[in-house]
Design a protein that fits this description.
Residues 190-342 form the Mvd1 C-terminal domain. 38% of the residues lie in helices and 23% in strands. The protein is an alpha+beta fold and 342 residues long. The protein has a five-stranded mixed β-sheet. Strands 2-5-10-11 form a four-stranded antiparallel β-sheet. It has a four-stranded antiparallel β-sheet with strand order 13-14-12-15. The two termini are 36 Å apart. 46% of the residues are buried.
Length: 342
């Protein structure tokens, strides 16, 4: 009799409006600052993971987008699996599946490692799928997702999520909490504009380490700006105040990239097209007489635009006028995503 068990889940990406950048502990992935993000719906950009556990498997293996990875050297994945098994054992000590090796298959339906939060979707999906596989319910999985990739802890909930840095050296208070759910601001949309699908040259992990050790601006950001912005962003979300929300989002993205450029050697994530996009958004807002569109850039050149639904058509039409057809195609490059978790 085949005793193997299998679970499949999908998980969304999240786009930070106050960015996480810098760690106080590299192994436990504890951040130096709080961050806030919006979780996108899973219908367009997501990771899908299938895990099976079987007494017949001789080793744990994983495949990402059909290509086998090296599990033995993947310390983060090993740490996540070890921690999940420990939790599962505490809940049901007799679960024999905990002794079995795993086969893990994950696919992203968007460019992997191009600064589009692929690790956030991937690790939140890994953790959630393992929880299904081992029957773990009613547990806060965010500190375990965090062990895979910091931003992953914000993808386990819909709506807006606040990841608190915590102060404990062991990290138990570094958890993500939902500020409001996916139905809270129904008019909000995110456009993901892929300007370059190539893998980024400096990973987030290396970029944040370099920035925190060499940038002088970085301390100012962490000590002064981020705490104030976290408070202001929570207020803007609570009031559904798009103007404040959008301005804080753009300012925080700009400051995060300024710190990256202040690293030595500098980490350059935004491209000329990214800068043009930012200028277009500012021009658009000036024309409109108010902030109704906001850009944000993660560790890559691709643009995430937060805006209200009533603005989408006008903004996308305007964008098409700026970018020639070979650089812009509504079907392929721009997707309007209602911000919710399904
Ligand atoms: C710019 O979560 O990818 O997207 O914890 O080292 O895996 P690691 O980094 P990661 O960093 C994401 C950085 C960011 C900002 C954010 O999502 O808050």
């Amino acid at each position: 009799m085949d005793e193997s068990i299998t679970a499949t889940c999908i998980a969304p990406i999240n786009i930070a409006v106050i960015k996480y950048w810098g760690k106080r502990d590299d192994k436990l992935i504890l951040p130096v600052n709080d961050s806030i993000s919006g979780t996108l719906s899973t219908d367009q950009l997501c990771a899908k993971t299938t895990i099976s556990a079987s007494p017949t498997y001789t080793e744990t293996k994983f495949w990402l987008n059909g290509i086998e990875g090296d599990y033995k050297t993947n310390l983060r994945m090993k740490n996540v699996i070890k921690t999940m098994k420990k939790l599962a054992k505490k809940k049901s000590p007799k679960n024999k599946a905990l002794k079995w090796k795993l086969h893990i298959c994950s696919v992203n339906n968007f460019p992997t490692a191009a600064g589009l939060a692929s690790s956030a979707a991937g690790y939140s999906c890994l953790v959630y799928t393992l929880a299904q596989l081992y029957g773990i319910e009613n547990e806060d999985l965010t500190p375990i997702a965090r062990l895979g990739s910091g931003s992953a802890c914000r993808s386990l909930d819909g709506g807006f999520v606040h990841w608190m840095k915590g102060i404990s050296p062991t990290g138990e208070d570094s958890v993500a909490v939902q500020l409001c759910d996916e139905n809270y601001w129904p008019e909000l949309r995110v456009l993901i504009i892929v300007v370059n699908e190539a893998k980024k040259s400096v990973s987030s992990t290396n970029g944040m380490s370099l920035t925190s050790t060499t940038s002088e601006l970085f301390n100012y950001r962490i000590m002064k700006c981020v705490p104030e912005r976290i408070r202001a962003m929570k207020k803007a979300i609570a009031e559904r105040n798009f103007k404040d929300f959008g301005e804080l989002t753009m300012k925080d993205s700009n400051q995060f990239h300024a710190c990256c450029l202040d690293a030595f050697p500098p980490c350059v994530y935004m491209s000329d097209v990214s800068h043009r996009m930012a200028a277009i958004v500012h021009g658009y807002n000036k024309n409109a007489g108010e902030t109704c569109v906001a850009y944000t850039f993660d560790a890559g050149p691709n643009v995430c635009v937060y805006l209200l639904e009533k603005e989408v058509r006008r903004f996308v039409t305007m964008l098409a006028a700026f970018f020639p057809c070979d650089a812009y195609d509504e079907g392929k490059f721009v997707r309007g995503i209602p911000i919710k978790y399904l």
